[in-house]
Amino acid sequence: SQTIHQWPATLVQPVGSPLSLECTVEGTSNPNLYWYRQAAGRGLQLLFYSVGIGQISSEVPQNLSASRPQDRQFILSSKKLLLSDSGFYLCAWSAGRLGQGSNQPQHFGDGTRLSIL
Amino acid sequence: AQTVTQSQPEMSVQEAETVTLSCTYDTSESDYYLFWYKQPPSRQMILVIRQEAYKQQNATENRFSVNFQKAAKSFSLKISDSQLGDAAMYFCASSGNTGKLIFGQGTTLQVKP
């Protein structure tokens, strides 16, 4: 069966420090991968998605970047965190080929609660 | 562009009763999918049910069912025999040909014993 791991679960960082959140998927190959951010009491906003190694699409301009160095690894990074980067970050994966009529459901990790001080 | 709207920020239901959560959407795509996700206090996102837009039959998963009205672009979730464990935030979402999910603002469901 497929599993998705996301870490760390909680992170407290000072303003201006770097960030690296990691997400890995097991039990499947060539997944579509996604990073979302959820502000307190709000819905999810798609930040990045990837259909393959080295392929990253950004949905909103921001202080963050994403990378996919391996097929089942998705990393969310920042060189200098801002207060506005605080939130709950969720990684997700889905099967199928995006853009070709495949709409498999997305499966989410447990999330990372990021607090910027 | 796709949009998803949940007009009920909060709902409450008595245990064992039935509750319906509303969702409307807008899309220009002819082929799309609709989903309901549950987010309990642990903040995990759990898929509850999904509906293919080309199917006329409403999806059902045990105590959860949807009322899909394609012409009205409405996709409501009905929870029957509500249980305390159903208390959570519920998100409606749609995806088009790109597979990217667009989420509504969420509805917080309270279940009263």
* Shape, principal axes of CA atoms of chain A: globular
Number of helices of chain A: 0
Cα distance spanning the termini of chain B: 41 Å
The H/E string of chain B reads: EEEEEEEEEEEE
Structural class by sheet pairing and helices of chain A: mainly beta
Radius of gyration of chain B: 13 Å
How is the biggest beta sheet of chain A arranged? 7 strands, mixed
Strand content of chain B: over 45%
Measured by residues with Cβ under 8 Å of the partner chain's Cβ, the largest interface is:
A-B, 30 and 25 residues
Q: Counting H and I runs of at least 4 residues, what is the number of helices of chain B?
A: 0
Give the overall silhouette of chain B: globular
Strand-pairing-aware structural class of chain B: mainly beta
Radius of gyration of chain A: 14 Å
- Please trace the helix and strand order of chain A, writing H or E for each element: EEEEEEEEEEE
Regions with little confidence, pLDDT below 50 for 5+ residues of chain A: none
The average pLDDT score of chain A comes to 90
Q: Which strand-content bin applies to the residues of chain A? A: over 45%
Structure description:
The complex is a heterodimer of chains A (117) and B (113). Chain A is mainly β and 117 residues long. In chain A, 0% of the residues lie in helices and 55% in strands. Chain A has no helices and eleven strands. Chain B is mainly beta. In chain B, a hairpin with a 5-residue loop joins β10 (88-95) and β11. Chain B is globular, with a radius of gyration of 13 Å. The model of chain B has no long low-confidence stretch (mean pLDDT 93). The A-B interface holds A 32, 34, 38, 41-46, 49, 59, 88, 90, 92, 94, 96, 98-108, 110-111, 113 and B 31-33, 35, 42-47, 50, 52, 91, 95-106.
